[in-house]
Structure formats: C-alpha cells, structure tokens
Amino acid sequence: MASLDLLTPHLGKIKIPGPNQLIYKDECVYSFDNPESETGLYVSLVTFLGFGRNYVEQYFQKTDNAVFLHIYTEKKPVPEPEKTGDGPEKKITRLAIGVEGGFDPDSGKAKYTYTNHYSVVALPGFHTYPWPNPDLPEVVRKSVQAIIDAESPFKMAEMAALEGTWDGETREVSVHAVNLKQLDNGVKVPPSGWKCNKCDLTNNLWLNLTDGSILCGRRFFDGTGGNDHAVEHYRETGYPLAVKLGTITADGKGDVYSYAEDDMVEDPYLADHLKHFGINVQQLQKTDKSMVELELELNQRTGEWNTLQESGSELRPLHGPGLTGLNNLGNSCYINSVVQVIFRMPDFVRRFVEGAPEIFATFPEDPVNDFNVQTAKLGVGLLSGRYSRSADADGSQEGLAPHMFRQLLGRGHAEFRTKRQQDAHEFYLYMLTLLERHSRHRANPSDCLKFSVEERVRCGASGGVRYQQRAEHHLPLPVPLAAATNAALLRDRRPDSTQIIRPEIPFQACLDSFMKEETVEQFYSSAVNEKVTAYKITRLATFPDYLLIQLKKFTIKEDWTPAKLDVSVDMPWEVDLSCLRSRGPQPGETQLPDSAPASAPAPLYNDSLLSDLLEMGFPVEACKKALYYTNNSGMEAASNWLMEHMNDWDFANKFEPPETQTAAGGCSSLPLDEASVEQIMGMGFERAQAQRALAAAGGDVGRAVDWIFSHAAELDAPAAAPPDRRLGCRDGPEKYKLIAFISHMGTSTMVGHYVCHILHEGRWVIFNDNKVALSENPPKDLGYLYLYERL
User: DSSP 3-state assignment of 96?
Assistant: First the structure.
C-alpha cells in the first residue's frame, strides 16, 4: 500500500457530500467509460464527478484535485435455467419499448451478477489504497462511504421522468360519470348475443350508458373495426359515455370511452350504470379484446411494426465505427433516431467529433450540464467504434446509454424530460434550437440544413406582389390522399376484408400539393388600403447541403381525434427539386408598398371562441389565424378553417396579420411591445439590441433571445439594409440523394416506436435502438423524416 503521507497535502480540499449532492459514479462525464469498463471509473472526492482513465489525468492536471474513489464492477454471466414451458408470458399492454408494460428490449438476453470493487487512488502515479481501510484519514473515509451510499443521479432522474408517464391501462375518471343521465326507457340488455342496432356487426360493439343503445365502433384505418355507428349516435344525441361489450369484468371494470372528452376514461360507477339496463357484472366474463390489445394487434397485423423493423429478414448484425447502437432509456427511441441521423453530416462531425479534444480541453466547471461537452461525448461515442462491440444474434449490442445527454436536453422542457413518447420532428427542431443557442462563438453545424423559403403574395385587387423570406431547417410536404394511384382498389375493398391495402401516393403529388397556389382571405393590401383576397405561392430561394423532408402524416380526423395517415409514399432514392426554386421578383411586377399605413386596424379575437378552440387542442397561433380569417363568425367557420389548413407550412407559427407585414421579410411595422423590450433588457442586453431582435423575431420574446445569441456579431453594427433573398443561407444545385430516413410505427406520435435507416459506406443499415444490422429491404415508402444530401 502506498504511503498515507501522499494524501496529506490534499486533505483540505476533500469534501463529504451532503444528502442533496449529485454524485456521478455511473459514467465518465467526458466518455461512456463506466465501472464495468476495463479500467473502471474514478470519482473525484472534491467535485464528485466521474472520469474514465483517458480523462482523469487531464482533469488532475487542470484542477489539481488528486484523490479519487476508483470503482470497478466485475460482471459474470449467470447460467440460464432450463426452460420448463410453465408460467404465463409477460402481458404487453403498451405499444412502447423499455417502459413498464411495453416490450422488454432485454428479453432473452444473458443475465449477470455484478460485484463492486473499491479503492482510493491518488494522482499523480495512481497510488492505490484498499477499501475498506481504517487507516485512511477520517475525511477520506467519510467521503468515500457517502459516495458509495449515494443514490445514482441517473436513477433519481429516471424516477422524476416517470412522474405522470402515460400507462396503457391508467385512465382519468370521467367528469360525466358522477351525474350521468340514464333514461328510463325500459331497455334491458341480455348477457350475450349482442348486435349493432344499425347494422349486422356482432363485434366491436359499444353500449351507450345513457340510453342503452348497442352500436358498432369506429372503422380502423385498415378497413376493419366497425361502421362508426356509435360515434354517429353521440353526434346526434350528445350522450357521452359508452362501454365496450365483452371487456366488462366481474369486478366492474371495462373499456369506457367518453366521446365528450375524446379519450378512454375510468367510470367508477360502471357496475351501477350497467345495472340500470339489467346487467349484473358479477355474471360477466371478459370475452373481447381491450382497446390496448386491439391497438397492439392492429399494428402487428398491418405489418408496419414488422416491416419497419425488417422482422421478417435474416438481419446480419454489424458493429464498428459509425455502427454503435443506443439503449432505449424508456421511450427515447425518438431521440436515438434523430441523433443517429444528424451525426451523418460532416458539419456535425467536424464540430462535435473532430472538435471534441478542443471542447473537452476547457474542462468546464459543470461538464454534466455543458451542452457542447455532452453532445461531443455522444458524437465521439457513436462514431469512434470504441463502444461498438460484437452484437448478439438478434443484432443487439450493449450500446451506449446517453443518460447525461438526455437529462440535459430535458432540463426545463415539460415534454422531453419525461418518459412519454414524443414526436421525432419536434425533437429535431428543439435540438437545432439548442445548437443555435450554444453556437455563439463557434460555427453552427445546423447551417448545412438551413435554407431560405420565399413566399410570393399577389394582391387580388391591384395585382401588386410582395416577396417575403424566412429561414427554415425542414421541408414539410403534405400527403394528398386524393392522389392515391390505387384509389379504385381502396374504394372497392370490402368492409369485412382483412387484406391490408395502403393508399399509394406518388412523391410528385406531395410536391404539387406543396407548390399549389393558396388563397389568402382578408389580406390587407397596402396598395388599395383595404382587405382583399390574395394568392400565395411558396418556393425555396436557396437549397441547403442537406435537406430534411417531413411527410405530414399526423393529422386530426373530422371527429377531432388525432390520427396518423397509414400511407405508402414513393420517396425517390435520387431527386431533382429544381421545380421548387424561386425566381424572385420578375420584370413587369409591381411591388406592394413596403409597410401598412398607420391606420391599419389591429386584429381582434373573440375570447370565448378562442378559448373553445384551444380546448380542442389546436395551437394558440393557429386559433388566432382561424378567427382572423373567418371574422370571428363562429365555431363552425373557425373549426372548418383549421381543418382545411392543418397542413399549412406555418400552421402553428406565430401569427402575424398580413397588414403588419413588410416586404423586407414580414417584420411588423407597428410599435414593438414595450414590456417585451424591457424583458429582454432585463437579461443584460441594450435597448437597441432588444428592439432589433424583437423586430427580427416578429415580437416573440423567446425567438428574439435565440436571435440575439446567434447574431452576436451583428448586434453592435448599425442597422443594415434588408437582407438579400438568401438570408445568409448556403446555396447549390437542387439534385439530392437519400442518405437516411426515420420511420414511426403506431397510430400517434405519443405512442409507438421509431427506427432509422442510414446509408453507411454504401450499405443501408437499420438502427433500432441498440440493434444495428445490415438492412435488406429499407422500407423507404413508410418513413416520416427523410434526409437528402446534395449530389
């Protein structure tokens, strides 16, 4: 054992962690080394940060913190017991992976025992002292014991993330259950032999708990299910609750749907409500599938789950540089897919992989919460191949577990900090926002995705035109169902057919839908000083190095329920998008005056109508647009407008009435909100800077702050002339090839699973969390997000 005198100079710095101290003893803050790694993990007795062998010496040289607890975990496989065939299989209750009730990604894997070995280490020289050791100074013993006893911050964060997590069988009590109206109409329901009152269906039947009518449920997107008679009955009567016959159990439970609340709900008085119609629940047995079971079965039957995961193929596992899997940390597949894809672009590799040594060399005081450090750590981990070892037979690797990265992204974000499934597209945009915010002194790697969108608006009264530009990082394309090439086959399919037929949509039809001229009602024309009908077309003024296309598959049905379009879109391997190129102002065009007259009326919104629209779940800015363009004329007109415009590019963007827009880019010519100016000044910025940022962001404070961080060099410069059409974006030829796509399986962005396919060294590879394998049949027609690279 080394001399204890070596510890003496450092005893004054050693700390004993308190109960609220976070101790990072599970993983290196700069790499994915952990106690199970060959060289174990070193935890500082000063800062309680963990370091792998590659970084602990650099940390010591930078900080002079010399004393560490070394943790090495010995991992031994446990012999698997012989299978007897007894015992029930685990019940799957959620269309999710890695969470309670979902699919277990570790099912069938080898089991291990883990034994922790501890020692105290002093640098330089890695002098080692065994643990436990009564000869160690008291402060060292207390510090080490507190570290060993402390709860892992990863586990603490996981418990916090689980709060409020949706569970497939947990439902809210319906507000209609307590005082549910039940008619004394003499209806008595037999215990069996049920049939829809309006058709001949004998399955998927729902008993309305107000009048006792038995009607079939909704038609599923694959043509099975019911004929929508139960929901039609609700529209006619307003009777809110119905229970699915065949799901009722002897303890008074069953699948209850509230049409008024548009959700599956809990009815604690279900037994009494059924008794009203002569049903004794104690004599009933569950004979039909629950809605959760049906959704699972439906997804598997339609083949989407199997197709996107290529379950029917003999997938050959891959490993090595650029072929590292990511563990699913409880519905984190949307994060896994996005980060796998973004690190396929050279700009991201240069910034966070090749630039990692420079980022790490700064050794920030709080590397756990440093965005650049944690992103570089992830990039190096994914592409270096250091953590990509030989996979199991099913393609599963041990994989990286990016706990710190996920916690950092979720901090302060109500949705991404939970274990609920989220939309991969929304996360992609959020990730780019963080990149912009943390690129003040560095090149922003997302610039390779940025392009200038140009809108041409033509006044219907004067013929004058206005060109406006804005920067975007994705191209959202509508999916026009009416353009299906197999429409006749879909129309002639029998309602009781089990054959799966998806609408087949040509890619060109998606482009045509995007490019078509849009009518803009009540456009304030500065040429004639009144509201008129205008016509808008949208094109691209520049083309980025990498183009991300989003197919707008998620929508809202006529009954206001969310739905996903189950379609097949013929996405091209290579494409020429020159048809999207904007040509800018043309000879002979008359430009509309730059700004509106001072008398331009400010928009007014009916507060009651706005509140009702918000309760339907629409974004507030979309609701404002609906009320504006329908003159606050009523719910029907506003809701119809929303349904018609759900696929608009800027559906949820901040609403800026046409009369407040200028040719210079759409910024308001009206005075800026003084409260917003003062709010930004309170963050330490000058008035002129706050005013410029708010003008550039259309008055939105959050966007203005992001603008300030990304335009630091411009803030002290005098106000420049209106930017050119390029908005500083890169430009080049319009020809692209597909290099990656992300697919979603499930009926909603809030449930299901994401996988991605990536073109790696000339071969298509499927990344399904920690499963990495050679793709035999890339299902590019079923994707959601597509990344194209310029040829």
Answer: coil
